[in-house]
Amino acid sequence: MTVLSSGAELRLTGPAGPTVVCVNGGRAKELPGTWSATIEWLVRRLAPAMPELCFAEVRYRTKSWRRFDECVNDCRAAIGAVEGERVLLLGFPMGGAVAASCADEQCVGGVVGLAPWLPDQLSLEALRGKRLRVLHGGLDRSLPGMPGVSPALSRRGYERARALGASGEYTLIPGALHAIALRGPTGRLVPLPRANAWAQLVRGELARFVSGVA
Q1: φ, ψ for residue 42 (rounded to 5)?
Q2: Are 46 and 67 in contact (CB under 8 A)?
Q3: E strand or H helix at 214, and its extent?
Q4: Rounded to an integer, what distance in angstroms lies between the CA atom of residue 180 and that of residue 42?
Q5: Is the dihedral of CA 199, 203, 209, 210 positive or negative?
Q6: Per-residue pLDDT tens for 34-50?
Q7: Could you give the CA distance from residue 94 to residue 23 in angstroms, rounded to a whole number?
Q8: What is the mean pLDDT of residues 137-164?
Q9: What average pLDDT does the segment 152-158 reach?
Q10: Predicted TM-score (pTM) of this structure
Q11: Half-sphere exposure of residue 183, counting CA atoms within 13 Å on the CB side?
């Protein structure tokens, strides 16, 4: 575990080298940062299959969109901590907005958004000339007691980024929900429907990054 210059925490899996910086979602309530079950499940699944990559999970100081600028600073601090390495940003779902806002860092090759929250008022200028890969569950929506992001919102954000000159792809995953995994009462990670489909698509994008295409 590494404490970043911003005060956030960074957890590394894998060797030094090309790095996937992973940023989590947030809520309206200002709560201390946590590790994302969705991102943790993906890292555990993908790191053994892609040993050439370093996965860097960020735990924000405060995981709230009311502290969005602070979360962006946490992400930039994580990028700075892997100084000199090629970086791909992976964000779920507020993490998609955080990643999009940090894409202008020179070492960043692109952004993978998992059910990304890309509100219409969010500037996407940082994505000019970068790659944006969006993956979204077809059944994602806000339900009582359960957060969600409308695929229509991420699609509008994707189209805005393309209009600014970003390259990319948008994939809707039939039967998939908002998250990929949840953390059970004992701390065990529980994959949700279509988790394997998410993992396969993310792995394809990571392979593209490793090859130097992204």
Answers
A1: -65, -45
A2: no
A3: none
A4: 8
A5: positive
A6: 999 999 999 999 999 99
A7: 8
A8: 91
A9: 98
A10: 0.96
A11: 9
| Chain center to CA of 24 | 6
- Please state whether beta strands 19-23 and 9-13 pair in parallel, antiparallel, or not at all (unpaired): unpaired
Confidence of residue 144 (pLDDT cuts 50, 70, 90): low
Q: Fill in the amino acid letter for 67.
A: R
Separation CA 120–CA 135 (nearest Å):
18
The domains located in the chain, with CATH, are 2-211 (3.40.50.1820)
Q: What is the mean predicted confidence (pLDDT) over 146-164?
A: 94
Q: How many CA atoms lie within 13 A of 194 on its CB side?
A: 18
What is the rounded CA–CA span in Å between residue 203 and residue 15? 17
- Dump the DSSP string for 44-102: HHHTTT-TT-EEEEEE-SB-BGGGHHHHHHHHHHHHHHTTTS-EEEEE-SHHHHHHHHH
Between helices 37-46 and 195-211, what is the axis angle to 10°? 60
With H, G, I as helix, E, B as strand and everything else as coil, classify residue 109.
Answer: strand
Residues near 157 by Cβ (< 8 Å), separated by ≥ 6?
Answer: 96, 100, 116, 118, 119, 120, 122, 124, 134
Exposed / middle / buried, residue 104 (Cβ in 10 Å: 0-12, 13-18, 19+): middle
